[in-house]
Predict the structure.
Amino acid sequence: MTRPRLHALLLSAVLFALIPSFSAFAGEVITVSPYWEGFTGPDGRGLYHDLMNAVFTRRGDTVRHLETPAKRGLIMVREGQADIYTCQAKAEDGLELARLPMYEGEFHALFLSRTFPHWNGVASLENKRLVWRLGYYSPHDFPVPVQFDETTTGTEALKRVVRESSDCYIDDYHLITETVNAYQPPLDSGNFRIESVGFRQYAPVFSASPRGRELRDAFEQGMRALAEQGKLLPIYEKWKLPMPRVYQR
């Protein structure tokens, strides 16, 4: 075999060996979630969009987001039709939660002031009728026994409180105020109260597959690197949201 041909074969072998490595780090990452103002806007604006772009574009990926209902988005990740659901507090069967959060904060209860004339914190919710968006919360999020129902929208949850078929609408404060502000006819704020009833972290959800675990590792490594380089805090400050404490060490 001639020397030029040998060199060509060696070069081809090297390039072939590099293909899996390259394809594992470059490509399109598909994220899914409902629309949450300030987090996953339909125009590509929001905290979660900025974080995903900062993490994955630094390694050569492009990020594409699809707006879906919560349950549908989780099914898409489980079935491999999407890569990441942003975000959730707990994992479900066939899915894995990142070990680092994208957001942490309190969740709240909205209720008619007359329903709880003597509010005593989360203890006041014992055996009360709570309503939340489908898949967002569970009775395990509360230290007291509760009754609960689920709706597809925050507006429907709020309607149930207004009609007094439910005692409290449970949601993130940001989402409660968004729902109240869009409600028609406008509500008299003097008739309602919003109180903190819990605290939890929200992390992206990945499939329990080799690709899912590779992307989960990339997310965690990317978030740590951004924090160490001082590039993470400005993203949270841009959206006037707190940076999770794990990155503040």
